[in-house]
Amino acid sequence: MGEHYFAERPGAASRRRTVDLVLPDLHLRLDTDSGVFSPDRVDAGTRVLLETVPPPPQTGDLLDLGCGYGPIALTLASRSPQASVWGVDVNHRALELAGFNAKIAGLDNVRFKLADELDPGLRFAAIWSNPPIRIGKAALHDLLLAWLPRLSPGGLAHLVVQKHLGSDSLQRWLNDQGFPTERIASRSAYRVLRVTSRTEGHTR
Question: pTM for this structure?
């Protein structure tokens, strides 16, 4: 498959194109490029997530973990115009595209940054993510354990995971880590998991 979309600086030659994200409540035209996740269409898992999650909190800090070129973060920003939305990724090209897409969409309540550029004191009322399953189980677990503890008390994360890529085992693992997790939707071989902020006093 060549270079992965989770490379920090993709070496693939740039080939800009646009894709459309059409949801019942919004229509976004997004610039994409080679070397980012799902450059030719909005990923099916992302679409399932955005079509099935409840409305996000209307205020507070909201996070798109692994934002790519921004479809999830821009949906959060559109649905919660009074909130502060953050998108993080390791892929510099994706972050540049996401910032461009936010500007074109006129959404000024969203910012895109590398993970280590984000204020470590930020706590999130919601985290939405189509997590990078293909980085491997250990790396995925490390990623989730770095970010899920930053949910505010009572905050919720919504993750979309393909069934055959381990959604059920991930649900069990999250419960074992003290994050109450339940499946809230299942469609087209994808599961949407709702994760509640870690129970008081639970340590890894």
Answer: 0.92
